[in-house]
Amino acid sequence: MKNKLWNVGVTQRLCLCLLCIAWLGMAPSLWAQGGREVSGHVVDETDAPMIGASVTAKGTSTGVITDLEGNFVLKVPDGTRELQISYVGYHTLVVPVPADGRVFAKLQPDTQVLSDVVVIGYGTTRKSDLTGSVTNVKSEDFNAGLIASPEQLINGKVSGVQIMSNSGSPTAGSTIRIRGGASLTASNDPLIVLDGVPLETGGISGNSGNFLSLINPNDIESMTILKDASSTAIYGSRASNGVIIITTKKGSSGRLKVSFSTTQSLQTKTALTDMLTYDEFVNVVNTQGSAAQRALLGTARTDWNDEIYRLAYGTDNNLSVSGRVAENFPIRASVGYYVQNGLLDTDKAKRLTGSVSLTPSFFDDHLKLTLNVKGSLNNNRFANTDAIWNAATWNPTLPVYSGNDTFGGYTEATDNVGQLVNGGTVNPVGAIKQYKSTSRVSRFVGNFDVDYKMHFLPELKFHATLGYDHAKGQGEIYVPAYAAQYATTHGRDYEYGPQKNVNRLLTTYLNYNKYFESWKSNVDVTVGYDYQYWKTTSPAYDELDTEGTAQNTIAASDQRHVLLSYYARLNYSFDSRYMLTATVRRDGTSRFSPDNRWGTFPSVALGWRVTEEDFLKDNPVLSNLKLRASYGVTGQQEGIGNYNYLPVYTISQTGAEALFGTQYHYTYRPEAYVSDLKWETTTAWNVGFDFGFLDDRITGSFDYYTRQTKDLLATVPSPAGVNFDRSILTNVGNVDSQGFEVSLNATPVKTEDWNWDVSFNMTWQKMKVKNLSLVQGGAATNIEAGAWIDGHCVQVLSEGFEPYMFYVYKQLYDEATGRPVEGAYADLNGDGVINSSDRYRYKSPTPDFIFGFSTSLNWKKWTLSTSLRANVGNYVYNGMAMNTGAWETMSYNTYQLNNLHHSYLETGFQSRQHLSDYYVENGSFLKMDNLSLSYNFGRVCRWFGLSASLLVQNVFCITKYSGADPEVPSGMDASFYPRPRTYSLTLGFDF
Known about the structure:
Oligomer: single chain
Strand content: over 45%
Distance between the termini: 36 Å
Number of helices: 10
Structural class: mainly beta
Largest sheet: 22 strands, antiparallel, barrel
């Protein structure tokens, strides 16, 4: 399943090597000619010498190429007044021949040529020839700063793509959605393809939340996002939720270059949960509390948030070597070292990465080999995030330390005989300091590609990829026996793992690409076969206390599945105006029974480059207009178990045996299964157009899409007595979605000293559940799903509505004061009784509109840039306000006071109102993700060039939401790890 992931610069410079040989062969004859001698020096935009640049006397065939230092000497014919200097991927420069015969030339990259090649599934194509909805983001357009994981490089850069970090921890991952996803309870994660190797979704022990963080973002050259069914269907069963193709950096054909970059950063906390201040807390207890509660007030003045959060240091260092070690043998090697402390004390992520890329070519470029090897070692320490809740609610009048050795010296909630109270929360500082959870995770990802262009038929190419992805994760947890958090069970002291993940890939395909001049037609046909195998194993282990007694047992696991695929694609264009793309893929998965194992996924797309027609050609205003339309079917079999169609029996664990006579025996428990599980399929339509004005100074695109997903793989309630569980995974129901996307790019100012680029994107999307009934035409179904809090589910899946809407009561308010009335809800069905039948679907955590904006202003060697994002129409359930904003939460026992949420002063609630719509708030926001100022010093001396940048990340957030952060997973704000504000300095050296 290998894409033709040739970096365009690599390909062009390999071709240049052949030109160099040709020039060298011509050199003797050129020196024999008469004329004057001209010498010079050629550099690129960074003032680095350009090796192999072509220098010719304009109007003649006389020329040479520059040497390893970018110098040249050329004997030009008499009367030559100008030299033409060119390099593949750069603008050709014409310079006059000075009287002294000494020339200095600086070439600028031709960004249009460099950006015209786009990586797609199983190959590349020109951007102008695309018929589907595809967006390519190159490294120069990535988000800057300290980036922990690759997906953050493109956050806010692409319409229709929503990326949200799951928390502020450096070990946290992200939720990625392309066009909102296509499923309900199956996976909505996009397929991610790394250098042709499709990666398995999910994580691994010791790094379960952020598997992508094992890839060094600094090694990535570009990321291509396939959004519509036409562009994704080539990946068949894994493409319903879109595809992200990651292409890593390769070697260049020039001399070896060494680059080093270092980023040093500091992170600070931003907004936190709005709890009562010290003075407000003391006043509330003294005025409203009982005598017993007043007696629990202490004399200390402790800000518990200051005690658990810290100024967090981070560093990211990368060293790379890139160039050519022999003729037609480019290489690139890199190492990276990343360390980031978390805002929460003891939280830490450490990563060491290395990569090697070899891209030689042989037999006049007929045979090209690619070897990519990437390895990483992660060492993480995970903080006890329970401390976030504890710090928000702990009594601010108590000291951190008790003055004695009990519980390690930390103040804890104890009864009158010094024992821990039932239902109490532990000291947040002790919860962090006395909890040690570490992990070690290693990963190896490699692929070897063979690309052979037949000698007897150069238009026919054979491609093969062998891919291998291996990961291993394990960890340890230790809590001393005297720590309050496990005081009744003698602490914890155990290891888990190693879990091992293996992913093996074989891809083979034939590609035929030929332009038939007499027909004005280009035909590009690909036919291929894929085999991919996944295996995940983890051993059983006991969660031991410090005395070696098992407190819990975790069973062993062995999960594996196979996917076989056959596919074909036709790209046809006529006269560079009319384009057709047709694909078909047939997938077979081991996750379904033999009767339902195979699925077929076709697609077709049409394109019309209107500006190539005579009536618009060479139009001075409209430089590009291309119309696109596509249709396709994709499949889904991710996010479910590997054996859900089989009768599986699970052996009981130690301590859960059955007694027969006088002996205990292990038993086997049947698991729920559905034998006729089949593919979830999504049918999608897309229409759109790409445009450019004023020689593409203004460019953009518009897309409108609809999707219908049927045979949803969803977990739904099972009728009593028909299966072995109350809920089963089965094919049920349909979901429809639609949306439109707009992208705009402009260069309002472009002069010799000034350049101003602006980029804007907007997405509108809607999704509706059409059917969730197991029986066709059955009664409408409501399924509790999504976010839960304190035993209450606050979201629902309902037919005819958006997925995961909040399912709550309509709060009533006092007309005189405007304050909510405790326990007073609207009787929406008018039966005179307030019960669950009066709950209604109110708002959704999914935004109606998503906006992204980026701009970069260059003046000479200075660059000022920023990126902003906005969500409009998303709602958040303020779980912290609900769960700490009632008087009953002041004391769960007679020995401990808890701080209250500031909303208590507004509501006066005595009891928590779990299902009141009062806590469902508008979460629309505008965030500035980064603001940077950079300066390119150029060649500081003969040996190296230098660049420097200052950057702030998470600059501000404008929102009406009363909580700490409106961007939270599943729309539920409950003890959220705050995202930090990051200040960083980056220095880049090019040798």
